[in-house]
Amino acid sequence: MLGLLGIVTLGVAWYGGSKMRMIDAQYSELTDVEMPDTAKLIRVNRLSNAMMYAAYKTLVYDGRSAQAKAAAAEELASYKQAVQYINEVSATEKDAAAELAPLRARLDAVQEVVVPALEKGLANSEDEARALLAKADERAVTFTTGMKEYNDRRVADATKESDRLSASATAAGTALLLVALCAVAGSLGLAFFVTRSQIAGPLDRLQDAMRGLAGGNHQIDIPGTERADEVGGMAKSVLVFKEAALRQDELTEAKKRAEAAQALVVETLEDRLAKLASGDLTAVIDSRFDPEYEGLKQNFNAAVAALRELIAAVIESAETISTGSAEIAQASEDLARRTEGAAASLEETSAAVSEMDQRIKATAAAATKTVERATGAIEVVDSGRSVADEAMQAMTRVSESAKGIDNVIEGLDKIAFQTRVLAMNAAVEAGRAGEAGRGFAVVADLVSALAMRAEEEAGRARDQLTATQTDINAAVDMVRRVDSALGAIVGDVNEVHSLLEVMAKDNQVQASAVTQVATAVNSIDQTTQQNAAMVEETSAAARNLTSEVASLSEQASRFNAGDRGGRKPVRSRVHAMPVASTPAHAATVTSVRQTSAEVEEWASF
Predict the structure, then answer these.
(1) 479 shares a domain with 437
(2) Is the domain of 339 the same as that of 386?
(3) What is the pLDDT of residues 261-309, one digit of tens each?
């Protein structure tokens, strides 16, 4: 059935795949070839219009202008592009080459008229060019009309081809669906037949056998055990149930025999356990049991004997524990009172040490802040020294610059001198020239006077510069004195800072020591309080133990344990005994001594 369904599925897949590949190839032809070619032909129509537009632009502009020449070049480029598109479509579509040839001829005819029109337009022969362009317009209209009709036919054919491919794909899908439905229906029919004849029938017969077996007919035959499939496995499993039922019948008979022996054992145990419940520990089993229950009899008798000995030992131990628990309770009460007193003293000591710890910490914090202020003062003084150093360097640079200015003034003085010499020479030459050099002599006198005035101003500038240098040197000396004073201040502040650091470290060490002492005292206080609580709990536990031992003795006296060897009950006695040194008390004393030693050490420090 599965093989048939697989063959049909493969056939449907092969048919559907081949059909889809054919449709895909035709769609690829339509989208990859015909539609791009149609777009190229539509561009040819647009290029023909561009040719005419460029030709008319030569009439608008002067023939010698760059615009007219560019329009002529644009027309030629449009024509070549249109021809290229037509040639490409003719090469890819052999069937369309015959229809495109007349359109190509019409485009060439338009170009034949446009070329001379362009020449006339470039020569500014507008009337002749306009006549040729009118003729070219008629041919262009014929070309665009024919191209439009051809493009419309191509678009209509492409639409029909697309509709045909869509219908083919729909038909292929319907056929595949029908074939698949037929294959599924045939497979279901075959499956129903096989299931009914090979599975349901044998299972019905096996079900009848199982019902008979469940009804108590353990001799019924189980059909299908000879089969090697799953139904045969189920039949063999039912056969196992049948054999188990037969063995169960045998076990039922044996169970009835065992129940009688078990009833005797149960009755005897109920009688002896009732005696044990009433407190009679001498109740043992004397009846004779089957061999399989003989071990139970021996174990019961041994358990009763052990319980009898245990109760006797419990009674004797309860009397001894009662005496010891009373003594422990008295000692615990005494220790609790003493521990409470020690805890109160330690609590007061802890409060005092904590207050000392807080005050020393406050002192350490103040010392730390003082060190920080001293550090800030040192930084401020260092900053002042840096500023003074920079001021001294700036004044030194000013002094050097003043020296440079002196050199410049000296140069100006020399220039003025040479200018006056030249003016004198010019006056001499003007005197030799006589009347003709009189004006030149006047200019020479003016230049000489200007040179003398420049010498005077240079002298004044030199004097002023000398005074300025003297003030600068005095300022530099003062800045050096300020720097020396700041250095001395820095030394003193550093010494104070060192002393403050030592004080701060000492305060911190003291704070740490007191903190350790406070921590130790708090720890001892908590330990002492815990010890006091533990002692109180121990005392309460001892009192509870005394009452529990009395109750235990009372309960144990209810049992009949036979002869106890002449032992007499011992009364509970409480003796006043001195309080022994318990481990908790010893630890408390040791902690207090250590704390006292630490406090004395801190005080000496």
Answers:
(1) yes
(2) yes
(3) 777 778 787 887 887 777 777 777 777 777 777 787 778 778 878 877 7
pLDDT confidence of residue 197:
66
The single-letter DSSP state of residue 558 is T
Residue 175 is part of a domain; what is its CATH number? Answer: 1.20.1420
The whole-chain average pLDDT of the chain stands at: 75
Reduce the DSSP state of residue 6 to 3 states and report it. helix
What is d(CA 404, CA 522) in angstroms, rounded to the nearest whole number?
81
How far does CA 257 lie from the centroid of its chain?
Answer: 76
**Enclosing H/E stretch for 383:** helix 291-433
When divided into structural domains, the chain yields a total of 3
- Is the per-residue pLDDT at 110 higher than 50? yes
253/341 same-domain check: no
Q: Which of 160, 71, 180 is nearest to 117 (CA)?
A: 71
List phi, psi (to 5°) of 306.
Answer: -65, -40
Which two three-digit tokens encode residue 510?
Answer: 């003291």
Last residue of a domain, one of 214, 247, 277: 277
In a domain, 492, yes or no: yes
Three-state secondary-structure class, residue 125: coil
Which phi and psi angles does 347 have, rounded to 5°? -65, -45
The reply to whether 409 and 461 lie within a common domain is: yes
Rounded distance, CA 45 to CA 68, Å?
A: 23
Which residue pairs, CB below 8 angstroms and at least 24 apart, start in 112-120? Answer: 113/139, 114/51, 114/52, 114/55, 114/75, 114/79, 117/55, 117/58, 118/55, 118/58, 118/72, 118/75
Identify the H or E element spanning 112.
helix 94-122
Nearest-angstrom CA–CA distance, 286 and 296: 12
Tokens in use for 306?
Answer: 């052990």
Question: Of 358, 361, 370, whose CA–CA distance to 509 is shortest?
Answer: 361
The reply to whether 247 and 313 lie within a common domain is no
| Residue range of the domain that includes 272 | 224-277
CB 246 within 8 A of CB 272: no
Angle between helices 291-433 and 230-277 (to 10 degrees): 110
Question: Distance of alpha carbon 372 from its chain centroid, rounded?
Answer: 43
Asked, for residue 146, whether it belongs to a domain, the answer is: yes
Question: Cβ(172)–Cβ(14) under 8 Å?
Answer: no
Distances (CA, A) of 480 to 398, 466, 487, 491: 16, 21, 10, 17
Measured over the CA atoms of residue 123, residue 125, residue 130 and residue 136, the dihedral's sign is negative
Under 8 Å CB-to-CB from 450, ≥6 apart: which residues?
Answer: 419
For the whole model, what pTM was predicted? 0.32
Distance separating alpha carbons of residues 267 and 338, to the nearest angstrom: 63
Same domain, 318 and 349: yes
Q: DSSP secondary-structure letter at 562?
A: -
CB 168: neighbour CB atoms within 10 A? 15
Asked if residue 444 lies in contact with residue 412, where contact means CB atoms within 8 angstroms, the answer is no
List the one residue out of 142, 113, 133 whose CA is nearest residue 58.
Answer: 133
The reply to whether 214 falls in a domain is no
Q: Which amino acid is at 562?
A: G
| Within a domain: 215 | no
Residues 188-232: tens digit of each pLDDT? 777 777 777 667 767 777 677 777 767 767 677 777 677 777 777
